[in-house]
Design goal:
This protein is α/β, with parallel strands linked by helices. The protein contains 17 helices and 10 strands. About 45% of the residues lie in helices and about 10% in strands. The longest helix has 16 residues. The structure holds ligand F0G. The site of ligand F0G has 23 residues, from α5, α10 and α14.
């Protein structure tokens, strides 16, 4: 059955019923919506780790911090391998298995490789990972290794890895699992579908997403437009994209060419997952911005660090690349694009524990070489909690507790 063949009400009811099913593909938060995915006749061949089904949290403290009343976060970091990549990978890896590929491959800033390696391992396919040497967070790299990928660190950046991978897939029977793979985009659409279901099909005013290679923003935008066309929703939320100042090709493309010509950059940001200078899906992202009425924003390294700690202060946490959404929202509120009474959903793309080095450096005050300027340090100070080393005595711990109590009352 295809979505266009039945009413929205019928499908909404069917998708809800599947939540109670014991069948693996019904339990998947991607395949549960399979009427919106490309048809897959042999369901036995589907590879699922029960991806999707991610929580929607309120972020009250972060809402106050940016000056809006109500803020939600859809936490895609709560997927099986800890990032949104699983929602697309379940579909694309299933296609690779169906087509009989022995090898799958990707270039990655970390999360795609972790996800691809996991799904490949489930199907006993071999996986080839190309990552930029020294620029991938250890949490992600260790996943790819455990899942058995052949992991090659190339002495280049992500864009260089992508170029080499394209050459490899032209010359060898390796199935390409980067986000240009259309099946990945189709799977990633389901995050928007699940979000709207969680909101009882009432569209928020804004959805804000980080931008790297721009596959995810393209996928979410595609889903929103399809949902409107199929009459699941009667209003499309504005989908906005945030990048790091040091990896801002889309922002520059919009600002300097009105979205007509890609401005590539040499990417450099501690939010390593989105350190991408020449995004493959930039044209699709421009179209999504135009069709949904969204905007772009760029945020500094200090703003990213602040936003990540602030999301942590709500008891949620995420990886640096995901935190750009809150930092970008702050700018959009200050600039008037987001009004204080409007509803906003941030897409948190990766799990807090993906990049513990960033977090530890932040709390130890070592994230910024030479230290941030004094005013910035003042903004960040209340969020810092470096581990305290003490002699093993109850008195010492109680004294530390009292000092912390005094500081929080001050
Ligand atoms: N957030 C996280 C945590 C990511 O890992 C990525 C991309 C993005 C955001 C940006 O998404 O590329 O679809 O615009 N990571 C890729 C990777 C590039 O290789 O894991 P995008």
């Amino acid at each position: 059955m295809r979505a266009a063949q039945c009413t929205a009400a019928t499908l909404k009811a069917l998708w809800r019923t599947r939540r109670k099913s014991l069948v693996p593909i019904d339990q998947s938060g991607v395949w549960r919506f399979r009427e919106l995915l490309p048809p897959f006749s042999d369901e036995q061949k589907i590879l699922t780790l029960r991806e999707g089904n991610t929580p929607l949290y309120s972020l009250p403290s972060s809402a106050r911090a940016v000056g809006i009343e109500y803020l939600l976060a859809k936490h895609q970091g709560m997927n099986p391998t800890g990032s949104f990549k699983d929602t697309g990978m379940t579909v694309a890896a299933s296609v690779a298995r169906r087509e009989g590929f022995r090898w799958v491959g990707c270039a990655s800033t970390g999360n795609t490789s972790a996800s691809m390696a996991a799904y490949a391992a489930r199907a006993q396919m071999r996986s080839l990972v190309l990552i930029p040497h020294g620029k991938v967070a250890w949490g992600k790299l260790s996943q790819a290794l455990d899942y058995g990928a052949i992991t090659i660190e190339l002495k280049t950046d992500f864009d260089g890895c992508s170029r080499i991978l394209n050459e490899v897939v032209d010359r060898m029977p390796v199935y390409l699992l980067n986000s240009v793979n259309p099946y990945r985009i189709e799977g990633q659409k389901t995050a928007a579908v699940e979000l709207l279901e969680q909101l009882d099909w009432q569209s928020p005013d804004h959805i804000i997403v980080p931008g790297g290679n721009l596959g995810n923003s393209s996928a979410l935008g595609k889903a929103l437009l399809e949902l409107e066309e199929l009459k699941f929703i009667n209003r499309v939320p504005k989908l906005s994209i945030v990048q790091a100042e040091g990896a801002n090709p889309l922002v520059r493309t919009m600002r300097e060419t009105g979205g007509k010509k890609l401005i590539s950059v040499q990417a450099e940001t501690a939010a390593s997952a989105i350190s991408i200078g020449s995004p493959a899906s930039w044209k699709k992202a421009v179209r999504v911005l135009e069709q949904t009425g969204g905007t772009v924003a760029e945020v500094s390294e200090v703003e990213i660090a602040w936003a990540k700690a602030q999301i942590g202060a709500d008891g949620v946490g995420c990886e640096p690349a995901s935190a750009v959404t809150l930092a970008g929202l702050k700018k959009m509120v200050e600039g008037g694009f987001v009004k204080p009474g409007e509803s906003v959903v941030l897409i948190l793309t990766g799990h807090l524990l993906k990049d513990p080095e960033f977090t530890l450096k932040f709390h130890r005050g070592k994230l910024f070489g030479g230290g941030p300027p004094p005013r910035v340090a003042e903004i960040l100070a209340p969020y810092r909690r470096a581990p305290i080393v003490l002699e093993a005595s109850g008195d010492a711990v109680i004294s530390a507790l009292k000092q912390a109590e005094e500081r929080s009352e001050a």
